[in-house]
Amino acid sequence: MSSMTFGQKPFQVIPPEKGAFPLDHAGECKSIMVSFMRCLHDNKNVNAYCREEARQYLDCRMKNNLMAKEEWRNLGYPEFDEKLQNENKS
């Protein structure tokens, strides 16, 4: 029997906007992820208090090719882009 009924449009799968990324099977970023999760737990899941831990986790994933390299301002860290630019000028 067909899963389509009359008048329904067929379901179309849409990939995520940034694409899929591999899981960290080797545990390369596990300690940083645990630190981030601990921060969230300690701060009642208010992620604003854990921005630095989240940034470190994203940085680890980018350095280990577990996600595409992205500019920090596109990930919500515009101040970190400015800090890196100032360090490179020195």
TrEMBL record:
One record GO biological process: mitochondrial respiratory chain complex IV assembly
Signal peptide bounds: none
One cellular-component annotation, GO: mitochondrial intermembrane space
Source organism superkingdom: Eukaryota
Keywords linked to the UniProt accession: Cytoplasm, Disulfide bond
Residue ranges annotated for the CHCH domain, each copy included: 29-63
Localisation per UniProt entry: Cytoplasm
Annotated PANTHER family: CYTOCHROME C OXIDASE ASSEMBLY PROTEIN COX19
UniProt record similarity statement: Belongs to the COX19 family.
Protein name (database record): CHCH domain-containing protein
